[in-house]
Specification:
Elements: H1 3-15, H2 18-25, H3 29-43, E1 48-51, E2 54-57, H4 59-89, E3 91-96, H5 102-115, E4 120-125, H6 128-137, E5 142-148, E6 157-172, H7 185-189, E7 193-196, H8 201-210, E8 218-221, H9 224-232, E9 237-241, H10 249-252, E10 256-260, E11 267-275, H11 282-301
Length: 303
């Protein structure tokens, strides 16, 4: 049983409708209905009576409702106390996949320091799945993740898209492929490749892009920043989101360049996530806002 399930039931009984509750909670109606059904199945009680005119509390649910509200109130008090302790600890924990986050990360944290000069930001590199788990468990306050357009978003986490872009080929300036305006898959396979390690979005993307074909030589790494350094050293080409390459210092200094991929227009996105429910510490709330503002400024500057 999760506290979110009880909060969903409370919202439905208050609003009298699955549709209105789904809109207020910012989740899909099927996901809301499934979550409530799972709770009823676990308790062995039909809490709600569903009809064409809406939803109302059943007789059994009416007896349970005060206990449900009591648990929600207790969880809220617990979160408030934990929030106060978190404020005292002066720490915001940010999980990041380290793929294309640098254009926003350093500037957002720099601005955050002006508002919260005594609050430490702990930046922890991890894979998308690990970040989502840590957010659900409360060990991360925020998470920066990459995703593809059309990917399903976890319903219990609030996802805000920050940047939208395309995958590009990152090359050393003296690579033969640098003479091309765009790089095809066959041309990409002619070069050694630097791949993101299994478990990262760009590993999944490249595997799908190549359709099972494998490059003659390949290396793997955990993040875009190390991948770009390996490209600059002449170890091969890397496929990365364009927002992780455009404006990079290695590009500005001419050590690496990038070219679009021909025949692929898949949208790659950078998003920030946090728990959908519960009280967020003020510092974490402010850092989330700064990432959204920084993303808007970055997108306008690179339009």
């Amino acid at each position: 049983m999760r506290s979110e399930q009880l909060e969903y039931v409370a919202a439905i009984t208050r609003l009298g409708s699955f549709r209105r509750a789904a809109e207020e909670l910012h989740i899909s109606q099927p996901a809301l209905s499934t979550t409530v059904r799972n709770l009823e199945r676990e308790l062995g009680v039909d809490i709600l009576e569903r009809g064409r005119s809406g939803a109302q509390v059943s007789d059994e649910g009416r007896e349970l409702l005060p206990h449900i509200i009591g648990v929600i109130d207790a969880v809220d008090r617990l979160r408030q106390v934990a929030d106060s302790q978190h404020r005292v600890s002066r720490m915001v924990r940010l999980g990041t996949v380290n793929a294309g986050t640098v254009p926003l990360l350093t500037d957002a944290i720099s601005r955050f320091r002006e508002v919260h000069p005594l609050t430490q930001v702990e930046v922890i590199g991890a894979q998308e799945v690990a970040i989502d788990i840590a957010l659900r468990e409360g060990s991360f306050d925020l998470g920066l993740v990459t995703c593809l357009a059309g990917d399903d978003m976890p319903t219990e986490l609030e996802t805000t898209r920050l940047l939208r872009g395309r995958a590009v080929v990152c090359l050393r300036s003296d690579s033969p492929l640098a003479e091309l305006e765009a790089v095809s898959i066959d041309e990409l396979l002619s070069e050694p490749m630097i791949l993101m390690r299994s478990g990262y979005l760009m590993h999944r993307y490249v595997h799908r892009l190549l359709g099972g074909q494998t490059p003659a030589v390949s290396y793997s790494t955990d993040g875009a920043e190390m991948g770009k350094l390996m490209v600059a050293e002449g170890l091969g080409a890397a496929v990365l989101p364009d927002f992780s390459v455009i404006g990079d210092q290695l590009v500005r200094h001419g050590a690496i360049i990038w070219r679009p991929l021909s025949g692929d227009d898949t949208e790659v996105q950078l998003a920030i996530r946090r728990r959908r429910s519960g009280v967020h510490p003020r510092a974490a709330h402010d850092l989330h806002r700064l990432f959204v503002e920084q993303a808007a400024a970055y997108s306008a500057a690179n339009a």
